[in-house]
Amino acid sequence: MIDKAELCAKIIELYPDIGACGIDVDVAFDNDKNAWVVDLKKDRFELKTHLEEGDADKCMIGEQCVGLGIEIAQLRANIERLKQDTKARY
Asked: In the chain, how many domains are there?
């Protein structure tokens, strides 16, 4: 089984801009779903996604985690949209 700390470190290694953007990353294995739950947080935004074991294995050998990359992009877009909406109001 994959180690939680190693998976988290690998995700940050594959997506180094996560840390640069200040997005907190946490992972936990969900036995009921037999998948890793990846929790991304930035300010008051939070997004959780599942990473199937096979996908987690691919991440660990250095392949891109495509689904996770899409989720990270979505979180960034949501944050930027809210910042623009806030600026427009003032």
From this structure: 1
Q: What is the pTM of this model?
A: 0.71
Q: Which domain holds residue 47?
A: 4-89
Q: Which residue has the tokens 């660990």?
A: 60
Contacts of 57 (CB under 8 A, 6+ apart): 2
Please give the structure tokens belonging to residue 69: 């990359």
pLDDT, tens digit only, all 90 positions of the chain: 788 888 888 877 777 777 656 678 888 999 999 999 988 887 777 778 888 888 888 888 877 677 777 877 777 787 778 777 777 766
Write down the residue that tokens 């096979």 correspond to.
54
